[in-house]
Amino acid sequence: MISQVHLTRLKLYKDKRIKHYSDLSISIRSMASKTQVGFVGLGNMGNPMAKNLIKHGYPVIASDVFPESCKELQELGAQILDSPADVADKADRIITMLPSSPNVIDVYTGPNGILKKVKKGSLLIDSSTIDPAVSKDMAVAAEKLGAVFMDAPVSGGVGAATSGKLTFMVGGPEEEFNAAKELLSCMGANVVYCGQVGTGQAAKICNNMLLAIGMIGTAETMNLGIRLGLDPKLLAKILNMSSGRCWSSDTYNPVPGVMEGVPSANNYQGGFGTTLMAKDLGLAQYTATNTKTPVPLGSLAHQIYRMMCARGYASKDFSSVFQFLREEEGQ
Predict the structure, then answer these.
(1) Phi and psi at residue 61, to the nearest 5°
(2) 8 A C-beta contact, residue 149 and residue 180
(3) Residue 221 banded pLDDT, cuts 50, 70, 90
(4) Average pLDDT for residues 238-253, to the nearest whole number?
């Protein structure tokens, strides 16, 4: 089955209104804007991202392995379907936001996966954080069926997903970037083209390794200052006007009572889970090994977050490393 987007591209090409067939992605998908968009994966990140598409006037067709995750979106007017394949049957622009590489492989190539019913000319955007090699494999599989796959992992967490201020790191064919950006701009403040498929994932893995190292450093620093008798709010204020300032200190402080509206103010509920951080650090470790890149602090951060998962912190936000360190004092 050929998509309406693909047919319109072909018509314009034959009418010679556009010189190169590959140039059609920008103009055609702009013409097709406000047509339905598929969304698979309605977890902590996917749910608010899909809501922002609806807010921008896009009819959303969605699916999630957990039906209860779909209720809120359905109340906002989204059409909920049983499987990713069903979504692909009805939409030729699909965004996926999933926890891990195995989930992505299943959603795209599984028995009820997107590629079972994908239309030629479809644009598939995966915002999961996964192994770059898996993104490349999905792109090859999609290309064989006449579809385009792009990796577009995000940074910013649940807060930025809710406010529509995510940063997207995009990998894929450059001629398709503006078509992807049209949708991603509804959910993010920054949409950056990184290169071919897999480079978006590479940028995200590097970012999250630094984020983990920074969060551990902030937690250690705050804990030391408190033990030395400093008021945590005062210490945070000093850090944030000094050279030690970082995102973990001024935007996502891990110490309860220092900031409002962050997981540390809510018993570390919500936000970016420790399990997911450990997974991302595992990806960084794997790619570092493959490229023979020394990452001693990244390796140590990976060990710390794996220990946290084993000691009851798996479902808490990754900033709970502060609480973990405090409890380690008594060991």
Answers:
(1) -115, 120
(2) no
(3) very high
(4) 97
User: DSSP 3-state assignment of 282?
Assistant: helix
Distance CA 48, CA 127 (A): 13
> Judging by beta carbons within 10 Å of its beta carbon (0-12, 13-18, 19+), is residue 260 exposed, middle or buried?
exposed
Distance CA 227, CA 277 (A): 27
Strands (E) located in the chain: 37-40, 60-63, 79-80, 93-96, 123-126, 148-151, 154-155, 166-171, 188-195
Alpha carbon distance 186, 172 (integer Å): 19
Confidence at residue 16, expressed as pLDDT on a 0 to 100 scale: 43
The closest alpha carbon to 148, from 167, 172, 132, belongs to 172
Contacts of residue 218, Cβ cutoff 8 Å, sequence gap at least 6:
239, 246, 248, 249, 253, 254, 322
Choice among 51, 181, 204, 279 that is catalytic: 204
Say if residue 33's pLDDT is above 60: no
- pTM score: 0.84
What integer best gives the mean pLDDT of the chain?
91
Token pair recorded at residue 58: 């896009």
The Cα 70–Cα 239 span in angstroms is: 41
Closest CA to 148 of 177, 168, 116, 128: 177
Asked whether the beta carbons of 225 and 292 are under 8 A apart, the reply is no
Active site residue 204: yes
Under DSSP, the state recorded for 100 is S
Among residues 192, 65, 206, 49, the alpha carbon closest in space to that of 132 is found at 206
Q: For residues 146 and 140, what is the distance between their CA atoms, to the nearest angstrom?
A: 10
SS3 317: strand
pLDDT at 22: 46
- Please state the rounded mean pLDDT for residues 200-213: 97
What would the pLDDT profile of 94-145 be if each residue is shown by its tens digit? 999 999 999 999 999 999 999 999 999 999 999 999 999 999 999 999 999 9
